[in-house]
Amino acid sequence: MTNQLAQETSPYLQQHADNPVNWYAWNAASLQLARDQNKPILLSIGYSACHWCHVMAHESFEDINVAAVMNELFINIKVDREERPDLDQIYQTAHQMLTKRPGGWPLTMFLSPDGIPFFGGTYFPKEARYNLPAFPELLERVAEVYSDEREELVTQGEQIIAALASMLPKAGGANVALNEQPLGLAVKLHLDNFDPVNGGLGGAPKFLHPAELDLLLRRSRATNNAQAAQAVHFTLQQMAQGGLYDQLGGGFCRYSVDERWDIPHFEKMLYDNGLLLGLYCDAWQSSQNPLFARVVEQTATWVLREMQSSDGGYYSSLDADSEHEEGKFYVWQRDEIRQLLSDDEYTLIAAYYGLNQPANFENHDWNLRVCVPPDQLAADLELSPAQATERLISAQKKLFAARELRVRPGRDEKILGAWNGLMIAGMAKAARVFNRPDWLQSAQQAMDFVRNTLWRDGKLLATCKDGKAHLNAYLDDHAFLLNALLELMQADYRNADLVFATQLADALLERFEDADAGGFFFTSHDHEVLIQRNKIGQDNATPSGNGIAAQALLRLSVITGETKYAAAAERCLELFFPTLLQSASYHSSLCTALAAALQPPVLLVLRGAENAAAAWQATLHEHYLPNVMTITLTKDLTGLPAALNKPASEKITAWLCMGTQCLPPINNLDELLEKLD
User: Fold this and answer.
1) 181-322+412-598 and 330-405: same fold?
2) What angle do CA 122, 90, 478 make, to 5 degrees?
3) Are 79 and 44 in contact (CB under 8 A)?
4) Is the pLDDT assigned to residue 284 strictly greater than 90?
5) Residue 339 CB neighbour total at 10 angstroms
6) Residue 130 pLDDT more than 90?
7) What is the phi/psi pair of residue 256, to 5°?
8) pLDDT single digits (tens) 461-496
9) Amino acid 428: pLDDT
10) Which residues in 178-200 are b (16+ Cβ under 10 Å) and which e?
11) Each residue's pLDDT tens digit, 48-100
């Protein structure tokens, strides 16, 4: 027997298709059923890589007795937060209002038939523990309250709707004068929050904060702030040496449960790794630290090996669990490692990964993290650096090969527009910085998949699985893909990418912009009507759509000469500027856009014979130039916009422009570097 989820494209929903719970997907028919039967809705939101989602499913949703209570008292609706971030945002916010606590996944919300929440929580155990009530008893109590206290719930619902509406940003009035004040505030607050011992921002649980680190690194360059650069470099070093990073296979997990980056929740998300690829490229350019280059190489290799479909698009995530245990694929018993390695290799690996220290995970297992820097390790073992490196690589290859024989975590193979945008941008930047044609081909294949599959009749769709593309795309899909196209054009200019970029930008303005107040709604003007229409400026695990949209539109305006894109970005910044003054540190991507508006991006066009351009590119890519857009054009390209349509010759020539002002053509690389500096 299957329930209503069997026909859904989401792997997360399909995981629950065989539950005895009579699950429905979120759609008009399910909501109408709740109204017709006058039953409250039990809304469960999660995602396929979520450990605690699996725990609650095994305990309660697979239990026939618990399911019977759910089916009798509620219309049960299951939502994949990755396919429906609009619903997740609304009900996570409502949960925080109702409980005064942060949300998470699984999110368990109880709604009236019209979708208004009246009670909620996250994970609930089948039997009372962790200071949480038993889920079956909770279900009965919630149904009783809904039946007996309807008037009070209506009043409470009206208050929640009003509170949600009040969260829209308020414009600062006419003639808002943008200035740098929020940038200084954000940098100060991030540095105040910096952990000088372990790296990162804040304490446990410790998240990745790519938008915040990106802003710090950019401002370190713009204001010569060595403290900001050091905070970013140290954080990225500690993350890369910690258990958050897959020391054998590359790629980062979603967050660390401790302040030292030792133990993650083991799910690997596409969005985190796309953002971190770009950030580690920037960190390498600004520091030349070989560790950062190695992280980029290992993570990009993981993406090609495990996260790209044969059709080109990137998959969404890898599960935290395998064989019903979190982290089982990744952790080790000490004796298992000893048996796989030679004595010399084991001696080195034991010190390197801390196997000579107490186990750091459950069941006396070790989650691998770097405990001794390689140079110190070589000195301690009286080896040359080359000998230590050779022995380390040999041991890692043996461990990786053994791990590949284990039961693998599940992979969520839906392809999301927004998350593909983040990974395409990261892979394109990595390809450009490290001159890797294979990474560039991967990024271009993914973008071609998006253009051919998710772009239908001038409208973008959000997700695709098994050839079925559907769901109205969101702001983030448009903004992140537009940003990715701009990164692709800097790695390898294709006219088709510029055409698609203008199509996405036009759709962004036509379907998402608030023409009256400025800024961009998360859902399009023709989207399903929900209890709230968000306009989000705050960064979360991913940068805000408004922040990335403003950044990308400003850069697109420079390339195309179309002032409407820059004007929309500036209206967005004017709307959010009062919010930036009040809480700059929560809006780092908008702060980055603000900096770009105050000091417009520099456009560098290189044109000439392909071989001549390569040497210039190799040198330029060693420099961290976050405010410079570099477009390299072969001499035979046609159909270029005026800003890019420079005279072609065999000799390489550079044109350097800021705003409407361009320097005379430059034919000497040293002169160009001097001007850029």
Assistant:
1) no
2) 120
3) yes
4) yes
5) 10
6) no
7) -105, 135
8) 999 999 999 999 999 999 999 999 999 999 999 999
9) 98
10) eeeebbebbbebbbeebbeebbb
11) 999 999 999 999 999 999 999 999 999 999 999 999 999 999 999 999 999 99
Q: Give the separation between CA 19 and CA 42, rounded to whole angstroms.
A: 15
Query: What pLDDT, in 10s, does the model give residues 141-165?
Result: 999 999 999 999 999 999 999 999 9
Burial 427-442 (b: 16+ CB within 10 A, else e): bbbbbbbeebeebbeb
CATH entry 3.40.630.10 includes domain 181-322+412-598: no
Q: What's the confidence (pLDDT) of residue 1?
A: 67
pLDDT at 327 over 90: yes
Domain at 330-405: CATH code: 1.10.10
What is the domain partition of the chain in residue ranges? 4-165, 181-322+412-598, 330-405, 602-676
Tell me the C-alpha distance between 453 and 470, whole Å: 10
Which pLDDT score is estimated for 649? 82
Q: Which residue is it, tokens 């290992």? A: 298
Question: Which structure tokens are listed for 282?
Answer: 């920037």
The whole-chain average pLDDT of the chain stands at 95
Q: How many CB atoms lie within 10 A of CB 622?
A: 10
CATH architecture of structural domain 4-165: 3-Layer(aba) Sandwich (3.40)
User: For residue 300, what are the CA distances in angstroms to 207, 236, 245, 291, 626?
Assistant: 21, 16, 13, 14, 21
Give the Cα separation of 236 and 230 in Å (integer). Answer: 10
State both tokens at 663.
Answer: 């320097």
Q: Which two tokens stand for residue 578?
A: 């009062």
How far CA 93 is from CA of 162, 205, 454, 533, in Å, comes to 13, 20, 29, 12
φ, ψ of residue 619 to 5 degrees: the values are -70, -45
